[in-house]
Amino acid sequence: MIKRKYFGTDGIRGQANSLPMTAEIALKLGMAAGLHFRSGKHRHKVIIGKDTRLSGYMVEPALTAGFISMGMDVVLVGPMPTPAIAMLTRSMRADLGVVISASHNAYADNGIKLFDSEGLKLSDDIEHKIEALMDTDLSANLSAPDKLGRAERLENVRGRYIEYVKSAYPRSATLEGMKIVIDCANGAAYHVAPAVFYELGAEIVTIGTTPNGFNINDNCGSTHPEQMCYRVKDSGADLGIALDGDADRLVLSDENGEIIDGDQLMAVIATYLKETGELKGGGIAATVMSNMGLELYLKEQDIALHRTQVGDRYVAEAMRKEGLNLGGEQSGHIILSDYSTTGDGILAALQFLAMMVKTGKKASELAHVFNPLPQTLKNYRFDAKQKADDLIAKIQPKIDAAEKTLAGRGRILIRKSGTEPLVRVMVEAESQILAEEIAQKLAALVRLELA
Questions:
Q1: 313-347 burial, b for 16+ CB within 10 Å, e for fewer?
Q2: Which of 127, 164, 315, 403 has the fewest CB atoms within 10 Å, counting from its CB?
């Protein structure tokens, strides 16, 4: 695997105004990506969207300056979901799409994600080439004064995206009579998500729709769904939807306030698509983090599971390779490639709601189709001087030995996070006690090496 300097599993990410998330790096990225995607004599165009973090005001103009210096026109759309930028990049025939967001992270972090002209996240190879350009002198490639790009703000993007996602919901169906709690995480979807469900006829209860630059994902959203679950039960809602900061993932709550995670959602959608003859490729794609219970359930349904490394772009790559139209992550990235090239929390929620309406079943009756294996997950922070990959390689023999004791009835996964300086220890077993026991032993090894 190519070792990358700036990019992780989902673009560039870090604490705002600290390496690598500085204005200088953003400027260099704009210049390098602009140079890489500059080809032909046509006017080149890049779409830039963001979430609601304060630091977006720093990153956006730096990126804009970099692209303009390379002769690319920049279209600024402001706070919009990540999947909206992927859609706009395709529909506006742009050369490149950019999202300024750190997804589910707190406001102090930020990140930059890139999409190609087809609305696909960049491959490792292209990211490596852009990184190489970032560390060179790009001055010889700057555009002449009369060839500089221009910047403009596009005002009607909300309506475009709202109509786009609504088109994925059956025209013959309605959400009238349904009450839905929507938690927008004070993030990028705060102004579009409520409109989608309201326009389809639902009564909505909103959470996280008053961003102030600091409260994105703050005790709300898909990583903190407790408030959503409470409001579902308290208001007698039929369903709860919690998005993350850039709305490319979600978790649901049934009418009882019980969480429906990405694994359960993939299981129920896959089963439904197979029953209706719409499941392509005979299977789905999911990462190594998806619960083994999902794998066992899909096997019973004669649906293949294609495992990938962590990151929704790797899921998307596997889907294209295997000819699949469904994939995702346990964390709630759900990719429905018949409608979108990337994870879209609103689209996934609409798919589930369409199934509820068609079957007449409550959310609790429709979801929770398998019992997940008990899972323990522990995270350990390391500093920049420590090499997490070397640490994991060092204790690999003990990891293998521990996994043998599970005799195929569980899994162990120890990996470095692609978005944060963390080592993640995950253990699945037939009982919570066994999973915790093994996790504690492995965690002690990790702590010892990090000490």
A1: bbbbbbbeebebbbbbbbbbbbbbbebbbbbbbbb
A2: 403
Give 260-348+359-366's CATH code, choosing from 3.40.718.10, 3.30.70.2520, 3.40.120.10, 3.40.605.10. Answer: 3.40.120.10
- The correct answer on CATH 3.30.310.50 for the domain covering 375-450 is yes
The three-class DSSP label of residue 271 is helix
Q: Give the H or E element holding residue 55.
A: none
Sequence-distant (6+) residues with CB within 8 A of 324 are: 280, 281, 283, 284, 285, 306, 318, 337
Closest of 123, 127, 9 to residue 422, by C-alpha: 9
160-242 and 375-450: same fold? no
CA distances, 357 to each of 178, 180, 238, 397 (Å): 9, 13, 11, 51
Would you say 319 and 120 are in contact if contact means Cβ atoms under 8 Å apart?
no
Q: What is the pLDDT of residues 210-249, one digit of tens each?
A: 999 999 999 999 999 999 999 999 999 999 999 999 999 9
Tell me if the domain spanning 160-242 has CATH number 3.40.120.10: yes
Q: Does the annotation mark 222 as catalytic?
A: no
Amino acid at 209: T
pTM, two decimal places: 0.90
pLDDT digits (tens, 9 = 90+) for 277-334: 999 999 999 999 899 999 999 999 999 999 999 889 999 999 999 999 999 999 999 9
CA distance 42 to 375: 53
Check 55, 69, 103, 340 and give the catalytic one: 103
Q: Tell me which CATH code domain 7-155 carries.
A: 3.40.120.10
What gap in Å lies between CA 235 and CA 219, rounded to an integer?
19
- Cα dist from 230 to 135, 182, 205, 273, 416, whole Å: 49, 12, 12, 31, 33
DSSP for 310-367 reads SSHHHHHHHHHHHT-SEEE-TTS-EEETTT-SS--HHHHHHHHHHHHHHHT--HHHHS
